[in-house]
Amino acid sequence: MNEFELIRKYFERPAKGALVGVGDDCALVRPNAGLELAMTTDTLVEGRHFAAGAEARSLGHKALAVNLSDLAAMGAAPRWALLSLALPSADEAWLAAFSGGFFALAERHGIELVGGDTVRSPLLTIGITAIGEVPAGVTMYRGSARPGDDVWVSGELGGAALALKHPEVAEAAERLHRPEPRVELGERLRGIARAAIDVSDGFAADLGHILQRSGVCAVVYYEQLPRAAALARFEASVQQACVLGGGDDYELCFTADPERRKEVEALSRELGLRLSLVGSIQKGEPRLHLYGEGGRAIEVPAGFDHFR
User: Fold this and answer.
1) Rounded distance, CA 132 to CA 35, Å?
2) Same domain assignment for residues 122 and 239
3) Cα torsion at 193, 204, 154, 184 (round to 10°)?
4) In this structure, what CATH number is given to the domain that contains residue 288?
5) How far is CA 63 from CA 10, 67, 115, 128, in A?
6) Residue (of 175, 161, 199, 211) closest to 70 by Cα position
7) H or E element, residue 189
8) Are residues 233 and 259 in the same domain?
9) CA 180 – CA 193 distance, rounded (Å)
10) What is the pLDDT of residues 56-81, one digit of tens each?
11) Whole domain around residue 218: which residue ranges?
12) Which of 13, 46, 203, 293 has the most C-beta neighbours closer than 10 Å?
């Protein structure tokens, strides 16, 4: 099977929202009137982001999910994606499973694959660019947090990091390999949240990016942070490392005016998604202050870094 047969069989589908999709030198898309385009890209490399032999359907899901999570953090609705694959071989069983996982998630969120590239490479590498739309004036930026804001986080933290340490814990492994991007939450937070970020490199590190961009500090109480239920069976040091420094959660951390608290709580009930108030934004040098039981200060851990 050559490159073009591979694309036609596993990735080419009739264009729906795009003017021109897979099959030409470029895709052509037209955003809806009054909307701005949000664009993001992520690359997953074998041996760095996933193990050799990782299950293909889960890889297809996760490769797209991590990009949808970035769009969610900006309040953008997903529309289109570009996919680049560097493959050791044209393994049809692998391609069928990978594309199945990719398109299952894409169809849930109304995102259309409109192009990309395939090459042969000794190292499996997956690159996706996702494009979404967001109304002007309601985008959530990392630099929009203000002193007095509440700090919130969705879902649970630490499950994916636990799976890296203990792959035998099935519920944690599911969080690592098949993360659920908070697309609907991101869209519903428009006009409610001020600043937001997706938790991909660890809660402490990612909240730190908001603080740096906004020029503020934050106080967060460790006991208020939501944690994966599977962590309860492990010692406190493991829990803390996973919750504060573990990556791959793909939850949303966001700030909002306290006057919006009832709206956030109502949204939590409506979506059936836990939204936890974990601290506040304050004036001061960009720094995260973490406190445990009895007001004990906790050292802020470093997050994931590709070059460390």
Assistant:
1) 9
2) no
3) 60
4) 3.90.650.10
5) 16, 7, 15, 7
6) 199
7) none
8) yes
9) 20
10) 999 999 999 999 999 999 999 999 99
11) 142-295
12) 203
